[in-house]
Write a structure and sequence with these properties.
Blueprint: E1 4-5, H1 11-24, H2 27-42, E2 48-57, E3 60-70, E4 75-82, H3 88-104, E5 110-115, H4 120-124, E6 128-129, E7 137-142, E8 144-147, E9 150-153
Helix pairs in contact: 1-2
């Protein structure tokens, strides 16, 4: 599975995302995020990060991530939207690749994902649950730096 960064100027990307948003029932959330991505892509020196990433099978979007944050404090929030009949292993792979992209390409120090339930897949990827409030559980992951022999959180 390849991680595809959404190009707001690509008619194919836009059509695929619109089809996906109808399919998963999150049209308003996804289309408004897409408009923010279009706006941010026009301003070169913006402090705001607003991108989308997706994985596709054929011409169909399987997973979509809305990537939002700020460059100065290096905090990024990922909103992950999966196919309703999605494969858990593919979903975990997508989250891992999106996390890696956020750390390596967008220079994030901290990533947060909000989940509406306990998510073992996020925990397996090194995300730490910050609460057990049903409906909106924040999961956070900090950049790991290689120090001496192993990995150390900073």
């Amino acid at each position: 599975m390849n991680l595809i960064i959404v190009n707001p100027d690509s008619k194919q990307h836009i059509m695929s995302i619109r089809d996906f948003s109808n399919e998963v029932g999150k049209e308003l959330e996804i289309i408004s995020a897409l408009k923010r991505v279009e706006k941010e892509s026009e301003s070169i020196n913006s402090n705001t990060i607003c991108e989308m990433a997706m994985s596709m099978m054929g011409q169909k979007v399987q997973n979509l991530a809305i990537i939002q944050g700020t460059r100065d404090n290096r905090l990024i929030e990922l909103t992950i939207i999966n196919q309703k009949d999605g494969d858990n292993e593919k979903n975990r792979d997508f989250i891992k690749k999106t996390t890696d992209y956020s750390f390596n390409q967008l220079n994030a120090e901290t990533i947060v994902i909000f989940s509406n339930h306990q998510d073992k897949a996020l925990e397996a990827l090194g995300y730490e649950s910050l609460g057990n409030d049903p409906g909106m559980i924040p999961y956070i992951k900090d950049r790991e730096k290689t120090v001496g022999i192993g990995m150390k959180r900073v």
